[in-house]
Amino acid sequence: MNWGRVWIRVVAVAFVAKMLVFGGMVLDFRPNSSLEDVATAATENSNPSSPALGSGERSCNPEVMRLLRLKMARLNEKERELEKREKDLELLKKDLENKIKQLKDLERRLEGPVKKQRFEQGARLQHLAGVYSSMDPVRAAALLNKLDEDTVTKLFAIMKSKKVAKILANMSPEKAARISARLYGKNDDQ
């Protein structure tokens, strides 16, 4: 049900009733009469076969009828505008739904490769942690001193604590302190 149209009809019927009562015309509305039937009946000055007017009808003031026709024309124009807006909104809704569907499809297609890349990166990091764990702590510290702190922090997060402690003891004190702080912060987040 279109509530905009219902509201326009209610206002129009109220306006017609008001105009006809103030104009000196008494209406006998029948259940199936429309606003157009009432206006047509009001313009037909004493036609007893009219569906909207009853036996107590009188002729209507021409000024009232002119205002009534003007108001009906405005209401019909507003109804057409509402119908156009409704169609436009429906088209926009369908367009938006299509775009959302396309984005979800794209997300699903990209999800697989991203997961695969993360898995492979995790596997490579795990392998590298195993390599450094099996090395002598002095040699591992010398190599890890040359890597960026982010990578070293990720490696240490995977390795056993005893091995990390031995490697950190052989690293430059400044870098060991920064990595320790990052490890502490990383454990805080988890």
C-alpha-based Rg, rounded: 41 Å
User: How many beta-strand segments?
Assistant: 0
Beta-strand content: under 5%
Query: How confident is the prediction overall: mean pLDDT?
Result: 78
**Total domains:** 2
Give, in order, the helices and strands: HHHHHHH
The backbone outline, from C-alpha atoms, is: rod-shaped
* Largest β-sheet summary: none
Question: Uncertain runs with pLDDT below 50, 5 residues or more?
Answer: 25-31, 45-57, 186-190
Q: If helices are DSSP runs of H or I spanning 4 or more residues, what is the number of helices?
A: 7
* Gap from first CA to last CA: 54 Å
Percent helix, as a range, is over 70%
**Alpha-beta content class:** mainly alpha
Please characterize this protein's 3D structure.
With about 190 residues, this protein is mostly helical. It has 2 domains: about 5-100, no CATH class; about 135-190, no CATH class. Helices cover about 75% and strands about 0% of the residues. The protein has 7 helices and no strands. Helix 1 (about 5-20) runs parallel beside helix 2 (about 35-45). The longest helix has about 70 residues, at about 60-135. It is rod-shaped and about 115 Å long. Residues about 25-30, about 45-55 and about 185-190 have low confidence and may be disordered.
